[in-house]
Amino acid sequence: MFDQQRMNIVIVGHVDHGKSTVIGRLLADTGSLPQGKLEAVKQQCLANARPFEYAFLLDALKDEQAQGITIDAARCFFKSNKRHYIVLDAPGHIEFLKNMVTGAATAEAALLVIDAKEGVQENTKRHGYLVSMLGIKKLVVLVNKMDLVENSQEAFERTVAEYTAFLAKLNLEPIAFIPASARSGENIVSPSETMPWYHGKTVLGQLDALEPEGETEKIKAPLRFPVQDVYKFTAQGDDRRIFAGTLESGQVSVGDEVAFLPSGKQSRIASVEAFNEGPKTTAQAGQAVGFTLTTQVYIPQGELMVKVNEVQPIQARRFRANLFWMGKAPLIQGKDYKLKLATRRVPVRLVEVLNVLDASDLRSVVGKQMVERHDVGECLFETLKPIAFDPSALIDATGRFVLVDDFEIAGGGIILEKVESKETVDQAHVRKREQAWSTGYISAANRAAACLHHAKFVVFSGPPEVGKRKMAMELERRLFMERRNVYYLSDANLNGGLDQDIRVLMRDKSEEVRRLGELARIMTDAGLIFITALGGADEYDLLQLKTLNLPNEILVVHVGENPPEQFKADLVLPAGIDPKEAAEKVYQLMSRYQILEYFI
Amino acid sequence: MDHLDRLEAQSVYILREAYKEFKNLVMLWSIGKDSTVLLWLARKAFFGHVPFPLLHIDTHFKMPEMIAYRDRAAKEWRLNIVYGENKEALEKKLTYPDGNLDRLGCCKNLKTEALKHTLSGEWPRWRFDHNLGQYAPDTNQEAYTGVIVGVRADEEGSRSKERVFSPRDAQNDWDVGDQPPELWRQYKTDFAPGTHLRIHPLLEWTELNIWEYVEREKIPIIDLYFDQGTGQRCRSLGCWPCTGKVDSTAKTVPEIIEELKTGKFANIAERSGRAQDKEGGGGLEALRRQGYM
Ligand SMILES: Nc1nc2c(ncn2[C@@H]2O[C@H](COP(=O)(O)OP(=O)(O)OP(=O)(O)O)[C@@H](O)[C@H]2O)c(=O)[nH]1
Ligand SMILES: [Mg+2]
């Protein structure tokens, strides 16, 4: 019976082992090529006095034909009597590994090609490793160019034995090994007569025999709904506040109680929203939908919606992961990367490299503290803000991530487990910094005695346009009138100066926050009441400021809606209150906290 | 979920990702079947709304029915529609129908150049004013840096190698050899200032899928795709001097689907009616490297 569902497969293997030829044959022999295409390419070859290659049917780029290699993965469409396929023709050359990974990441099954004569090569192994890491569970191995080894069963068995042993180390068991000669079409679509000793399926026969990934398992798993965005199209006269995204697993219905992680906020599903569809009351894995909630909760994009009565994901900042690296610059410690996991984006740091493997032979390279291009490794990471995830073995969509280094996706990884730690990377940094901190002859106590107050870092945070800056400025004036040692820093000055180099580059606030925290440590060391207003900061940013400003103290004034819940602000003020009144309230609080204890 | 549900969900995800990550976003709308499906998918993604402008490049050689269809849809769905053109080339008659250029040169002038300069904001744009019921000069001259395009991988060789999020440099150049990786559903969404981006939500759709979806969703499609009694219809829409028709008596969407399935066209390239692809060696790859979509 014809299966309407389409299957994505990827063809991988070492350079020149015949991947593009296999696909060319598949397309030609299933009659999937446009009329005249085969003849046209043959004509072209004749005109240019070069032998015809089936690969030319796919290697469409001029450079590819000139060099006789595949550079970028091509998507090809073909149809058998069983179903439609998209085949991704991955390049075998190491230089184009990121293109191979791109092709393989969306595939449901992989066809790995090995040249019978050359045998198992470096990228035969590397690709095998990546296939397992990318989560492709169905692997078929094609031993190609059997004509070059006189169609010998022995030669075939040797390759089978060698590669089986390698895959065993990855806990990967291929579905089948098929001997074939792609160029002449032996065992690709029609069975071979030159290898009578082989009784298995042809390549196409084997592909058709693959069981498509069922949806039932994903639907049965716990709900994982990463919030992609929150919409309110008020200008178009639409008052719905819609939480949009794709269900990665599970299902959810109107009335279900849900929680958002890591914020922990809870609500109930009020409606399932869709366009040009009948009313819906439930949604399940795979669907891109939207929900409205019964209560007004503030949820930023990137949170993970789950059902409260199901197995919860893990929440942590530190985790162990397997990772492969494609970046031009190596993955190193002491640098902020951006982690993208489902719809969440947070800064992340490499804590430690536990093990680096040479993916071509799975040998560990000991003592390496970085992961270089084309390496795979096991690493410890720490995010600057908590993330909610699942071990990739349980739910793959919320267990895998990519790392962005300077605008480029440079690595991909799968999470193994949460790791406990006594100290965050920031805390360790502050501890070391403070051990080495040195001052002149004047101590903090000297300064406090002379200025009649303690040092303090005062931060006004909150959504845009609530009057934070005015309030901060009034507070400065109020304290200055009393001859306090106070300074208000406008964030605009940072943007145009200290942060000028990162303003254009980073849309994430993490580096700005780090610099402000270090600056505050210095300003408060000078004995100042150091005041600033910070827009768009969340509670984890505030927490980081607090850590970096240690051992001095911070006072957080939140203005407007959605005050931080886990890291509490010292004072919450309504948006738009009179700046003088606000300043007075903060002043009172400071007196009560005895920051101004010398004030009589 | 059937195969159309899956394709739809994937495209919706991509559109939402684009909308979240880019400020100066625009969607190209050629009135053809692919970009009309794309427009429909945007309405799916944003629950009936299209929260970014649609850009149409008017070559002035489009079939008149296309412009009428465009403006009707603009009103009915309250679309934010903008068009641009190569005024100079049209005034100086530097076109193929005027006999002054070959087909490729004409495409470059009326489409590629017009698109490039309309996107950058250098050339005037016209925006549909829903109060006036007609087009008025657009006051917004900011460059559009994210462009959503309805290309499909099955159309032609170089399109089969596209990324879903495909960066171009400020000259619109496409570095095919060095494209960013796309893993699982993570696309390249971080950019150095000055990068331009093409977003391709339809890459995995085939011509057949497009028609199956049109049928399922009952998307109103321009009549030019159907035989209106002459025994011929368009399979791909462009400018009238370069758009050939195919022999076909398909008068409805199901008839087109049947025709594509049972093989009459299964083996004839879809763009075979587009004469410009056949000129010169590189054809569409050469056009695309210059910024053609
Ligand atoms: N003798 C013989 N040669 C073959 C066979 N299959 C492919 N080849 C040849 O092997 C060479 C490489 O084939 P391709 O299909 O381009 O190899 P590939 O694996 O796609 O290479 P990359 O994409 O560059 O990694 C070509 O010259 C093919 O003609 C076969 O069955 N027998
Ligand atoms: Mg190849």
TrEMBL record, chain A:
EC number(s) from the headed UniProt entry: 2.7.7.4
Residues in Tr-type G domain copies: 4-215
Origin species: Candidatus Lambdaproteobacteria bacterium RIFOXYD2_FULL_56_26
Superkingdom in the source lineage: Bacteria
Keyword vocabulary terms for this entry: ATP-binding, GTP-binding, Kinase, Nucleotide-binding, Nucleotidyltransferase, Transferase
Protein name: sulfate adenylyltransferase
GO biological process: sulfur compound metabolic process
InterPro entries: APS_kinase_dom, CysN_GTP-bd, CysN_II, CysN_NoDQ_III, G_TR_CS, GTP-eEF1A_C, P-loop_NTPase, SO4_adenylTrfase_lsu
Gene Ontology MF, one: GTPase activity
UniProtKB/TrEMBL annotation, chain B:
Keyword Transferase: yes
One GO biological process term: sulfate assimilation
Enzyme Commission no: 2.7.7.4
Residues covered by the Phosphoadenosine phosphosulphate reductase domain: 24-244
Keywords per UniProt: ATP-binding, Nucleotide-binding, Nucleotidyltransferase, Transferase
Top-rank EC class of the record's enzyme: transferase
MF-aspect GO terms: ATP binding; sulfate adenylyltransferase (ATP) activity
Pfam families: PAPS_reduct
PANTHER family hit by this protein: SULFATE ADENYLYLTRANSFERASE SUBUNIT 2
Name of protein: Sulfate adenylyltransferase subunit 2
